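Reference record
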Amino acid sequence: MNSIRRSSRRSFRHIEQLELLPYFGKWLLIASLVATLAGSASAFFLVVLDGATAWRETHRWAIWLLPFAGFAVGWVYHRLGKPVDAGNNLLIDEIHDPKKVVPLRMAPLVLGGTIVSHLFGASVGREGTAVQMGGALADQLTHVFRLNHEDRRILLMAGMSAGFASVFGTPLAGAVFGLEVLAIGRMRYDAIFPCVVAGIVADQVCLAWGAHHVHYAIGHVVAVGVGSVIAVALAGIVFGLVGMAFATAAHRLGAFVKARIAYAPLRPLLGGAVIATAVWALDAYRYIGLGVPDIVLSFQMPMQPWDSLAKFVFTIASLGTGFKGGEVTPLFYIGATLGNALAPLLHMPFAMMAGIGFVAVFSGAANTPIATTLMAIELFGAEIGPLAAIGCVTAYLFSGHTGIYRAQRVGHGKPRKARERLAAAPTGPVAESTATASDLTREAATEAG
């Protein structure tokens, strides 16, 4: 009888669900704290960003101050921000190979740098700022909770998810973004609970502070059928190629400028002078900043076919010469206006194609097809889900191994030759940490040459 009781007690102690309770409680608390910090930071950022954008739009002459603003931000980063200048790539690198806590200065530096960039007319986004603030603030809890390397990885992923979710108002997409962006073709499910909690709570915290997100009316969505699937798949190929071109151009211009201008503050000074002159000469004020008004218009009326190209060029010039911000909202602009322009050629509704382009170009540029599909559903409604998935997955497949995040690793390659190289390499975390997307892109370019 005693042996039966002892056996029962051992079985009770080893019930898997009971063993999960400490893990559940731990990460519910930590992820909620991370979300509160990131959501509050994003709310403050969005309010200040709206004010900066409104001021710039009523003071067009401010574009001539862009070179000096760029120099000021470059100088501050040169003096104080070298340890955090890698931005999102630093966070991704720390998740793959934890070394030391991300300096807290990343948050105020990227916040100030982004606001100044928008205040004077650089064409940059906001996701980079929110993700970096979320990651930097989250990492400060490493010592508070005495987390080991593995838990710190999860903490940083939760911070990235919280920042992304709160700045765009897409909690599920934000949660999956933190899981999916680390490696092409592979997701880390060990962090799924903290990232989901962080994404949902951060979004609610941001809303509770009174921050608002843009709402898009997509209107009629055609039924899933042979014609619509073929049309969206064809558009997805274009979206993927544009996403790849964007990432490649941004990296190459950045490398070109760094190779020829050794003193970092001079890069945005010269870039700002070129951008300001082009904006004034071409009356291209609509292509600077976030470009949200034009994104909204792309869901309401036909746009000019060159809108996406103009935003592409101004954004590459801004990011490549060192202005701070992000890539995602400009990618939304490029994708929405491009989808709008492709719609009549494919005999599809322009609002629906604008919505699919909105997420698909980002999918191709960031290699995140699942997060972007969820984003489409959260922003435009569940009805667009199947076609958005086709567009995002197709764009992902056709964007190659390049991406806007240099530190992104390759879990499972896309083209056949990449898969063969990965299959021949050693497996496991070490193997994954040694192959980056840019590595395979350079190999493919060498073979093609």
User: Anything to note?
Assistant: Residues 425-434, 440-449 have pLDDT under 50 and may be disordered. Strands lie at 183-184, 409-410.
